[in-house]
Amino acid sequence: MDTAAAFLKAFRVDEPVAWMPHLELAGVVADAPMSGGNEWPQARPARAVVKPTRAVAAYSAGQSVREIAFEHGVARQTVSRVLEEVGVEIRIGRRRADIDVEWLRRRYIDERRTIPEIAAEVGVTMTTINRHLEAAGIPRRARGSASRATAIRVDPRAGDSPLLRRILVGQDATQRAERFLIVARHDTMTAAATELGVTLSILANQMRRIGVDAGGPLIQRAFRGQPLTLTELGVEAHNELSRAFGLSEVEDPARAAEGSQ
């Protein structure tokens, strides 16, 4: 019994030690042939249910082993073994989130951050943030009401650049910036639209919008066989966006406008 208990403990199996006598000893005749005495029974398929990538993502987002096990319908020990096999160090005890009420109120009420955004920032689950909101007496917003915050939020990659802080703000700002960098690689807007899989009118409107945000046109369209070029402001925007997005200027050079230095 002690040996069996030590074996179960070594493999973190939280189950009682049980012993079942041989069927013949118990006076029962087996209907099916018995396996060899030195063979272990087939493992339960519970571990196959837990996908390592999904478990790691959930655990890194702040979910506990117990919560992940409950979602998958398996024992905590099963989840622990899956995480350990991929090199994830198991946290000891439940993670406590020390969240300042005023900080939470400012993030949620004043800055209008969403619950998933706050949860990701703190490194806990959305359930934890909901629980803190309720404890602080902060009423939750209706679904979809956070869009105003998106319209005024600047992408962190803009840094201190005045130009990027005008470009990388608002809904779909990052998409417009990325598409501008793709347009700069092509001779025509049509070729860029084909690569992106969008219509020419949609892409042209986005390039017009990014120019308005930047403070002036960034692109001179192809004309009479001449390739598309960037304006002086477009070259500046391209260089700053390339640095912000970590692109190589050698791999993705900007084409200066004709006559610009």
Summarize the structure in words.
By secondary structure, the protein is mainly alpha-helical. The protein has 3 domains: 1-17 and 47-95, no CATH class; 101-151, no CATH class; 156-244, Arc Repressor Mutant, subunit A (Orthogonal Bundle), CATH 1.10.10.10. It is built from 14 helices and 2 strands. The chain has helices at 2-10, 46-49, 52-60, 65-72, 76-85, 101-110, 115-122, 126-135, 147-152, 162-167, 173-183, 189-196, 200-214, 232-244; strands at residues 219-220, 229-230. A two-stranded antiparallel ribbon has the order 1-2. The termini are far apart. The model is unreliable at 248-261 (pLDDT under 50).
Summarize the structure.
49% of the residues lie in helices and 2% in strands. By secondary structure, it is mainly alpha-helical. A hairpin with an 8-residue loop joins strand 1 and strand 2.
Per-chain topology:
Elements: H1 2-10, H2 46-49, H3 52-60, H4 65-72, H5 76-85, H6 101-110, H7 115-122, H8 126-135, H9 147-152, H10 162-167, H11 173-183, H12 189-196, H13 200-214, E1 219-220, E2 229-230, H14 232-244
Antiparallel strand pairs: 1-2
Helix pairs in contact: 4-5, 7-8, 11-13
Structure keywords:
single chain; about 260 residues; mainly alpha; Arc Repressor Mutant, subunit A; two-stranded antiparallel sheet; 14 helices; 2 strands; about 50% helix; elongated
Secondary structure tally: strands: 2
Unreliable runs: 248-261
What's the shape? elongated
The CATH architecture of the largest domain is Orthogonal Bundle
Fourth CATH level, the homologous superfamily of the largest domain: Winged helix-like DNA-binding domain superfamily/Winged helix DNA-binding domain
Query: Which series of helices and strands comes N to C?
Result: HHHHHHHHHHHHHEEH
The helical percent reads 40-55%
The oligomerization state is single chain
Structural class: mainly alpha
CATH fold-type name of the largest domain: Arc Repressor Mutant, subunit A
Number of helices: 14
